[in-house]
Design a protein that fits this description.
Length: about 400
């Protein structure tokens, strides 16, 4: 195997997504997912050389899951331990105030990521489990953490500050951190490439619309605002998350519905958003329900679009003018309807969508506004794994340079 491949690991509470790829060429040698870790019906699905292999069975923990990944690589001719990979890149959700660069992992870094679990109790413990397993199984390979919050570290004070008692906020790390940063950064760079412009010259609005969803406003390649906050719950309506709501709803639920705080957390993170309003969280199913005349599904969609347009308007004003509006991730890349409705009737602001370009089948990056429209509207597939692999490769290259 070539020595320049990077293994990217995205470790969730009960799953591990992975890719082995070449950060230069972006060619993916293999990829897959381990699901339902800790349950009886666990499984691994591994893709390599155009073939998919699947293995069901109980997977006790993340180390057992990662061992299965290594076995799957061996079975398809990639000996990760023997021949080695250049680096392992880990997606880490919360870097807090501490981490805002891709960071070489050692014991102290792992401990600090674990300490940040108080800010991301659903995510950071799983990230730590993935890191510890990978370090145990690939002891000689440099491991690099790439943080979802990093890109938004330098948000202006007025955008990142919540208007609560400043002493309480400072004592508890309460500020807007923002998430999906790796995606927003990668996509904004691709937009500049596609437009043949320097990022530093561009004002951009980016909508990352997947299961989780967030928007960002970027001036000269740097974010000046984003919708997610202390946690990934704030902002847009998502598959299962509420996004913005009156904070008074939380004490009301505790007092009136007698929910405890964990039940409120679950309600807002897992049983709200499109799912809470319509019963389904996948946009393809939502569309089918709407077409069958389901009123709840129609309302869920309308609320989703209403929130998107609210932030579009806010970010247009914050930026004072925009060069490009871009859609990415599962819904953003695949739903012409969402793109058309989000930007409908805004020609007076220079925002237009060409219907034929918007509906054309295609998976690559593309412009969907008329060529003479003042604002470019684009669809750009995100690639967080590639961005993480490149960041990890860069850290390792700098490390080697320092040693030589
Ligand atoms: P995640 O946030 O889990 O990474 P993705 O970016 O993969 O999510 O987006 C997943 C979502 O994308 C699905 O839940 C589904 O709603 C939506 N999606 C995927 N394909 C399509 C499609 N062809 N049309 C509309 N929505 C789609």
């Amino acid at each position: 195997m070539e020595q320049d491949l990077v293994l990217v690991i995205n470790s969730g509470s009960s799953s591990i997504k992975y890719q082995l790829l070449d950060p230069e060429s972006s060619v993916v040698a293999a990829s897959g997912i381990v699901e339902r870790i800790g349950e009886d019906d666990g499984r691994i699905e591994h893709h390599a050389d155009g073939e998919t292999t699947e293995r069901p069975g109980r997977i006790a923990d993340h180390t057992a899951g990662l061992r299965l990944v290594f076995d799957a690589f061996s079975a398809t001719g990639h000996d990760l331990v023997g021949e080695g990979v250049r680096a392992v890149g880990h997606r880490v959700v919360h870097g807090g105030e501490v981490f805002y660069q891709p960071t070489l992992i050692d014991d102290a870094v792992v401990a600090a990521i674990a300490d940040l679990s108080v800010l991301a109790p659903l995510h950071n413990p799983a990230n730590v489990a993935g890191i510890e397993s990978a370090r145990a199984l690939l002891p000689g390979v440099p491991q690099v953490a790439v943080f979802d919050t990093a890109f938004f570290h330098s948000l202006p004070a007025a955008a990142k500050t919540y208007a609560i008692d400043a002493k309480v906020a400072a004592a508890h790390g309460i500020r807007k951190y923002g998430f999906h940063g790796t995606s927003h950064e990668y996509v904004s760079g691709r937009v500049a490439e596609l437009l043949g412009r320097d990022s530093a010259e561009l004002n951009q609005i980016i909508f990352h619309l997947g299961n989780g969803a967030s928007a960002s406003a970027l001036r000269g390649g740097r974010p000046i605002d984003t919708t997610m906050g202390l946690t990934p719950l704030e902002g847009l309506v998502m598959g299962t998350r509420s996004g913005d709501l009156d904070p008074g709803i939380v004490p009301h639920l505790v007092r009136s519905a007698h929910l405890d705080i964990d039940q409120v957390d679950t309600l807002l993170n897992r049983d709200s958003g499109i799912k809470g309003l319509s019963g389904v969280n996948d946009f393809r199913e939502l569309r089918r329900l709407i077409e069958s005349g389901d009123q709840a599904a129609r309302l869920a969609y309308d609320v989703y679009i209403h929130r998107l347009r609210r932030y579009l308007g806010a970010y247009l004003i914050e930026l004072g003018g925009v060069d490009a509006i871009t859609f990415t991730a599962g819904v953003g890349e695949n739903s012409p309807q969402v793109r058309a409705d989000a930007l409908a009737d805004l020609a007076r602001f220079g925002i237009e969508v060409d219907q034929a370009e918007n509906s054309a089948k295609g998976h690559g990056a593309r412009r969907i506004s008329p060529p003479d429209a003042p604002i470019a509207v684009l669809v750009v597939p995100t690639n967080e794994e590639l961005a993480i692999a490149r960041a990890a490769r860069q850290v390792v290259a700098e490390l080697e340079l320092g040693r030589s």
